[in-house]
């Protein structure tokens, strides 16, 4: 039987609170940090916080993924489909282009599968006023 140490434990509640504070203070209204995985791992989990009214512009990801709402309320839009989610909900990230909007100050856990050795970002969006990648932490 495998055991875990204290170093393997992350309080998602604490991470959500900390990143909500950062998102509220940030000009762009968001904060994120990878809490597990990343380069050289088959899985990446990132805590993302968005201030109410903040939208992650349309982007696309070729990876399997889920969004777990840790706090708040968000809206995921893909094509003509719109899903509202609240604390405790788990959404499948669509394989098509989509946007994510914070209806309230919100914190999420984004979990994505990765292809080991693949150099491309999990998802990238570019617009006139922002560029961001899920591979980066937003501070």
From TrEMBL:
Domain of life, source organism: Bacteria
UniProt-listed InterPro entries: RmlC-like_jellyroll, RmlC_Cupin_sf
Signal peptide: none
Protein name: LuxR family transcriptional regulator
